[in-house]
Amino acid sequence: MNGYGGTILRVNLTEGKFTREPTPAQVARDFIGGRGFGIYFLFKEVPKGADPLGPHNKLIISTGPLSGTLTPGGGKCDWTTKSPLTGGYADASLGGHFTAEMKYAGLDSIILEGSSPNPVYLFIDDDKVQLLDASSLWGKGAIDVEIALKHKYGEEYQVAAIGPGGENLVLYACINHDFGRQAGRGGVGAVMGSKKLKAIVIHGTKSVQVADPEGYRKAGMALYKACKDAEGLAEWTRYGTTVVTSWCDEVGALPTRNFSAGSFEQGSNIYGQTMRKEIVITDKGCFGCPSPCGKYSHIKRYNTQVEGPEYETIGMMGANLGIGDIQAIAEANRLVDDMGIDSISTGGCIAWAMECYEKGILTKADTDGLELKFGNAEAVFALIRKIAYREGEIGELLAQGTRRAAQQVGKGSENFAIQVKGMEQSAYATHNATAMLLAFMTCDVGAHHNRSWAITYDLQVGRDKVVPEKVARIIWLQNFRPMFDVLGACRLQWVELGIDRDLYVPLLEAITGIRRTWQDLEAVGNRIWNLTRMYWIRENAGFGRDWDLPSPRFYTEPPKTGVTAGQITKYEDVQALLNMYYEQRGWDDNGIPTTGTLETLNLSTLVA
Amino acid sequence: MSATIRPLGMLKSYIGDLKETTVEAGQSVRATILALGINPDLVAGVFVNGEQQTKDYVIQDGDTVKLLAVIGGG
Predict the structure, then answer these.
(1) Which of B16, B11, B46 is nearest to A498 (CA)?
(2) Rounded to a whole number, what is the distance in Å from the CA of B40 to chain A's nearest CA?
């Protein structure tokens, strides 16, 4: 098939066996690739009720037809699994250079099955596939493992690895690659750890067959030219995602002290311009990227280096922890990367623990003596290690994520566990931003921002407005934006540079030989969205409307400070948003897709 | 005592026909763009001579001030 590697590689870690099968044409037609392949294989193959950390769960890594091609940012693959953090669907997108090597090894998906009795790493070099002893790597940090394997095999070999967090099954452990890129959310690293798979080393030399080489060259170059000509390219490249830090602070969207406010009085210490002056050494991009958003930093105070921090980490491990110190945030970033735990969920968990501590719900007897006050960076550094190693009561408690930790601790702490469906909310405060709140409520992995992002839309339309147009906007974004994770390319060229998305249409056609308009692609996005919903329903008894509710903080506790002081979303508006959302989605009052909706999307047989 | 204001990319879709314009120096970016009819909340990035600044920055003679919106987000 044009645009595809053509092979699905299955790795049975229990038996140490490999099988190859051709990529099914019908699956490519209906789900295209990336997270589309992920949910297809997850729904079809992982048995209902499987333990996310047991051998029956699978970790599915998928490229897309744009991966490894002349597409700006065409270096994204998607890691799909049943989440140990949420018990539902999870996928995490990975940048860097892993994806292109996977495509050049001829692989559309790698499906990791079973569980190895001993620590191993997977070595793939074109058609050569081996499981090799990783006992000497087990226990090492993810960055150290990448360095060791790069030294062993060479710079052209790409490495994805877990750290101690994944080994110790921290429920939000991530997978690290390229010294600072992550498949970050939902605990994909814990699933990899449960399979005793420490790392994957990959290298490929095959070419990707395209349908129309000349059309491909023209369409690809047109996209690159659009990026290079885009106004704002220099500014985005200089600051990356940290461009928005000051603006989020200004509009009340910067999570502050466990989302108790949306503006931070020390904000200017952590803005992008401060970071650029204080710590950034150079820019760093992923495969084929014309607008590198990564920043490589030297942290003078600690004499350490890190890729980052980017906005999410600055928000969640900075303002949200009351830390107004860019060097301390960068050091926390370095630690979570090496430990292999997601910086967003880690920030959410530590912020919850800090609020518990300040309210007397947790004391030093519970925290291994740590003074968990907001702003205490040294305590944060210590706690990151405790979480990754599940060390002490506090490490064990927080390794479970905020939902379980709050259920265990009680005493009202459930009300300030800032999560949806068990996933910690990423770094946008939503006290009075109803479209963005709905985006978090209905995101198909939990409270994550990357499916739909609507802060600017809230400001345009009126942040407290609860109108069908906002709901329609969220649904459109949910169907559209994740298609980049299906196609195997980065969305930031559209997000940041405003590249005309129609430029992708002729490129995709030249690669695959199949013409798909964005209307066609959004229809696939809608099918995938509904299938991920059906996965939640299948795996969680009683799943329904209540699972879509946000943290009570956003409808009960208006911030006392900042630009959103006194502002809140009314509970009836939360319910009204859901009513409109379900109606527009073709779901029933409990948030379950109707039979008619599933039939329209050609999903009836798959979910039966 | 003048400076240049230049809306970039997607911000233009919010503010109609306003293109590059010359303004008096001496006012903050916030006050200046408000006077131009631009909602400051929709301006995510302010870049003065290539460096990001807050909207409290007081525009100096000869500055080039670029304004950037965020539509897509994270």
Answers:
(1) B11
(2) 10
Considering CB atoms only, which of A231, A243, A427 is closest to B52?
Answer: A243
Task: Give the integer Cα–Cα distance in Å for A248 and A238.
Answer: 18
A497 pLDDT tier (thresholds 50, 70, 90): confident
Residues A344, A347, A348: CA angle, nearest 5 degrees? 85
Q: What is the pLDDT of residues A63-106, one digit of tens each?
A: 999 999 999 999 999 999 999 999 999 999 999 999 999 999 99
Inter-chain CB proximity A243 and B72 less than 8 Å: no
Q: How far apart are CA B8 and CA B73, in angstroms?
A: 16
B22 CA to chain A: closest CA distance, Å?
Answer: 19
CATH topology (fold) of A7-203: Aldehyde Ferredoxin Oxidoreductase;  A, domain 1 (3.60.9)
Is any Cβ of chain B less than 8 angstroms from the Cβ of A234? yes
Domain covering A231-413: architecture:
Orthogonal Bundle (1.10)
Q: Which two tokens stand for residue A462?
A: 């009126």
- Fold exhibited by the domain A434-498+517-607: 1.10.599
Q: What tokens appear for A432 in the block?
A: 């009075």
Nearest CA in chain B to A243: B45
**How many beta-carbon pairs below 8 A join chains A and B?**
90
What residues does B28 pair with on adjacent strands? B58
CB contact under 8 A, A273 and B51: yes
Overall pTM surpassing 0.95 (yes/no): yes
Fold that domain B2-68 belongs to in CATH: Ubiquitin-like (UB roll) (3.10.20)
Q: Is A246 on the interface with B (CB under 8 A)?
A: yes
